[in-house]
Amino acid sequence: MTNFPVEKIRADFPILAEKIRNKPLVYLDNAATCQKPQPVIDSIVHLYSHDYANVHRGVHTLSVRSTDKFEGARTKVKNFINAASEKEIIFVKGTTEAINLVAQTYGKANIKAGDEILITAMEHHSNIVPWQILCQQTGALLKVAPINLQGELIFDEFEKLISDKTRLVSVVHMSNALGTINPVKKIIAAARAKGVPVLLDGAQAIPHMPVDVQDLDCDFYAFSGHKLYAPSGIGVLYGKQALLEAMPPYQGGGDMIRKVTFEETEYNVLPYKFEAGTPNIADVVGLGAALDYLNEIGMENIAAYESELLAYATEKAMQIKGLRIIGEARQKGAILGFVLDKIHPHDIGTMLDSLGIAVRAGHHCAMPVMDFFKVPATARASFAMYNTKEECDLLMNGIESLIEVFG
Amino acid sequence: MFDDLRDLYQEVIFDHNRNPRNFRIMENADRQVEGFNPLCGDRLTLFLKMDGNVIADASFQGSGCAISTASVSLMTEIVKGKTEQEAEELFKIFHEMTTGKDEEINLEAVGKLAVLAGVREYPARVKCATLAWHTLDAALKNEQKPVSTE
User: Fold this and answer.
1) What is the ipTM for the molecules in this complex?
2) Which residues contact A262 (CB under 8 A, 6 or more apart)?
3) What residues of chain B score a pLDDT lower than 50?
4) How big is the A-B interface in CB pairs under 8 Å?
5) Dihedral Cα A365, A368, A372, A378, nearest 10 deg
6) Does B23 touch chain A (CB under 8 A)?
7) Nearest chain A CA: its distance from B123 CA (Å)
8) What domains, with CATH codes, occur in chain A?
9) Which CATH number fits domain B3-141: 3.40.50.300, 3.90.1010.10, 3.30.390.50, 2.30.29.30?
10) What is the pLDDT, as a whole number, of residue B150?
11) Fewer CB near the terminus (10 Å): N or C of chain A?
12) Which of A347, A354, A370 sits opposite B41 (nearest CB)?
């Protein structure tokens, strides 16, 4: 493959040296969560060892140091997705909380009975259920744009579903079950033409490609740290400043206020208005370290390498008799979902695990996608920048062997 | 290649997975209950024909992994001719065998079902083996609503 320094990268991830059932770990469950490089681990240890105190509070030195690191990470996030301002970067637990935040603030303030929210048939449960809850609360309707058998959005149908009643479009950037990369610029342009704001669920997309929110012109972008080589429990909601300013707060508490009396409360400025309580300081710092690490490698390079890896794995998989790939979009990220004739995905998962190979077996929190393809579950190998062609070969050999054993 | 898995995937399990016993719809069933494992998508319908308090016939339909298919296939074989109480007793023994930590397995009591004892080492797969029995339990209690392992 091209000059991608995969061996050097692998050496930065201590867990990749683990043995699983006495075999070298082949970690192919990156769409569920990915592993952490040493600089991320070190950043957290260093913070707790030297710089930790609560943020935005004290005049004492440690609080200042902690706040600098915390807000420094916000700037790193801003730069990483090219947001216009740090005010547009809200720290949350993860993508799920980011979407719930938009549903319960922007949604409740702007969406009424009879209004419509438009999603697609390939959404993760986290981009379905928050809208269902909002619909129950408000009487709004959830509309679902269909996909085709390759797992691609049927764009014409999507466009037709944007009506005078549509108040929000919420679409996955890259599908976790199928790997499909949606034509988000086209989607945003179509919604924009009708004055409808767009939220992108970027949980899967962001580790695999450069994301520029100003170039995309999306209104909201949600993602998690843990799929981006950063700690779990931290995520980001990006929102355009004007939208965020107009939204009511999400949770009440400390840090999100400017002035409190028992009669009334004046809310803090952005982004703090949406960050009630002591934030997840260490994991925010860890996220900042992950972004530094990724910037050094370059998201363009990662995208190119992973695309070669996926092409290689796909070609090998297609040679296996009885294997059916689920998700064959022309624009696809490094996810290989598949089923085998007469072998249930859970048996595939257990058998591959005995060879040290970690894949996901199940519905991938996308039960409607499973229903559409008429499968109870799929097996999914999802790749990261530290995976290799040799690991693809081990996966394929494992699949061929288990087919033999099942006979 | 899969030596580590020999305790979990015994030949009997492959055999029942390839050729499930009593795999048919029972037209005149007295009891019919659905079992569903939302986590893996295993789905089965269990049919029972009762003669007083004796299970005269048992059959099933559905799809699942090798462990769940073998488990329900073996179960339909073993409960035929058993009274409701005997079947409930077997459910208890089976449950202990698949979820117990230290207890010795009473091989005599479980009989053929011993081939499923290996799941106790695989916590993620225990529900695959027990779905059939939870469904049977509901059928014996004459519950109508589907059984879920969640």
Assistant:
1) 0.89
2) none
3) none
4) 61
5) 20
6) no
7) 11
8) 6-30+298-406 (3.90.1150.10), 41-296 (3.40.640.10)
9) 3.90.1010.10
10) 65
11) C
12) A370
